[in-house]
Amino acid sequence: MAIVMKRPHALRDVPTTFCPGCTHGIIHRMIAECLDELDIEGKTIGISPVGCTYGNYEFFNCDMVQAAHGRAPAVATGVKRVNPDNVVFAYQGDGDLAAIGMAEIVHAATRGENITVIFANNTVYGMTSGQMAPTTILGQVTQTTPFGRKPEFHGFPIRVCELLSTLDGATFVERVSTHNIKNIINAKKAIKKAFKVQLAKKGFSIVEVLSTCPTNWGLNPSESLKRIEEELLPVFPLGNFKGKDLEV
After folding, report:
1. Three-state secondary structure along the chain?
2. Quick one: pLDDT at residue 218?
3. What is the CATH number of the domain that holds 53?
4. N or C: which end of the chain has fewer CB within 10 A?
5. What is the per-residue pLDDT for 52?
6. Number of domains forming the structure of the chain
7. The pLDDT of residue 174
């Protein structure tokens, strides 16, 4: 019998710790498939900070390093500079990357550090009970915005890809999504290209992945996927913001 699907070798055979309907697992599989296809599992070092991403060392077969909250790009910078021949990626959530870690991501990008960042954006602090994040959209109800995010009180959501694409040191910047099969396929292509950018020593790459958080959104898995399409895409449009035609 022909094998049409199997677990990537770079993804460990362990139970998930994510909530039902959370798309972190999909993102993990895409990363693992890329490590397999590029044959770089044995030379890859992943960096995980605090948040729903903290337990990534349980899921990937490559080496993993734990970082303090928001500091994954800084740790990744150090790891890459000490091990320039290794592939180094940071996996971050929106509360981590766009709040306490905003300085780290901006300066890693503007320095053109030859690292890859996978940025899961679900517009809320997932691990710590659903507070407003920098990417929380206007009107969104969270634990700290019970009447919805209001610009006069809370400001506007940060669009990370648009911001980082203005920096000369950023080489490849793309936003993708996990809300249907077509977009998952496109997301994997972007992640794979981001790794290829690093392998070609072209500099800093980041892929923002719109993700779900059914628990803190108060929705079931199907409703969460629909929310990405109907509510998040108008605020965070998909597409390549830098490096679309880059040859790697």
Report:
1. CCCCCCCCCCECCCCCCCCCCCCHHHHHHHHHHHHHHCCCHHHEEEEECCCCCHHHHHCECCEEEECCCCCHHHHHHHHHHHCCCCEEEEEEEHHHHHHHCHHHHHHHHHCCCCCEEEEEECCECCCCCCCECCCCCCCCCCCCCCCCCCHHHHCCCCCHHHHHCCCCCEEEEEEEECCCHHHHHHHHHHHHHHHHHHHCCCCEEEEEEECCCHHHHCCCHHHHHHHHHHHHCCCCCCEEEECCCCCC
2. 94
3. 3.40.50.970
4. N
5. 84
6. 1
7. 98
Residue ranges in the chain whose pLDDT is less than 70: none
Task: Report yes or no on 85 lying in a domain.
Answer: yes
- For residue 90, the model assigns a pLDDT of 97
- What do you get for the CA distance between the two ends of the chain, in Å? 36
**Residue 236 covered by a domain:** yes
Rg (alpha carbons) of the chain, rounded to whole number: 17
Domain assignment present for 3: no
This prediction has a pTM of 0.95
Q: Dig out the tokens for 6 from the structure.
A: 């199997």
Query: Is there a domain that residue 146 lies in?
Result: yes
Give me the chain's average pLDDT, please. 95
Rounded Cα distance, 135 and 94, in Å = 7
Structure tokens at 1: 């019998």
By residue range, what is the domain housing residue 74?
24-242
